[in-house]
Amino acid sequence: MVMDNQPLFEEGGPCFQSVLLVGPPGVGKGTQGKLLSHIPGIFHISSGDMLRELDENSEYGQLFQKHATKGKFVPDEATIRIWKDYVWSKIEQKVYDPQTDLLVLDGIPRSIAQAELLSPYINVIKILFMVCEDREVMFERIRGRALKENRKDDADELVVRDRWNVYKQLTEPMIDYYPQEIVRILDADTIPSEVLSKILEEIVPIQKKCFSLPRL
Length: 216
Description:
Number of helices: 9
CATH class: Alpha Beta
Shape: globular
Strand content: 5-15%
Number of domains: 1
Number of strands: 5
Structural class: alpha/beta
CATH topology: Rossmann fold
Low-confidence stretches: 1-9
Mean pLDDT: 83
CATH architecture: 3-Layer(aba) Sandwich
Largest sheet: 5 strands, parallel
Distance between the termini: 35 Å
């Protein structure tokens, strides 16, 4: 792949200053990520959006379709290679500038294995752990999203519930991989604007500390 030859990803290269949005399917990570993406100085990457943007006829596009239709995830190493390609393309397009933009990752890493693979490339400053106690509320959100956005991978009830189980087995334990002092638990069982306000309370100080003010 082209990205493996890019100097940006050579050993000892720069780490991207990053915040992770973590939480179960349907908790609202995507909604918050989209809201954050409109704020200057923040660049949001959703693993789901990244994978769905793949050319269906490409090697990785076919790999994604094969796994998504069964409710499965793309293997970790392939996911990270896709992520590296995606980030590099956004830098080349001048959509993302690591010198001025805080990187907000949503849905990646999703496991300890992915966190280890990503560790040379991202400096995780904060983990925003979004929680919602009512699982059925989250399932209802996913069903609504499937209808609204025509997302085949969200349309199958059994697939959605299996993803919940995978999240509990793989993603939630990842929280303990990182230093606990950077983890912030956020109640996501409220209106999106209130959740956004809580997120900004955590992100704004990071922007001020790590980056110069973005040009408007």
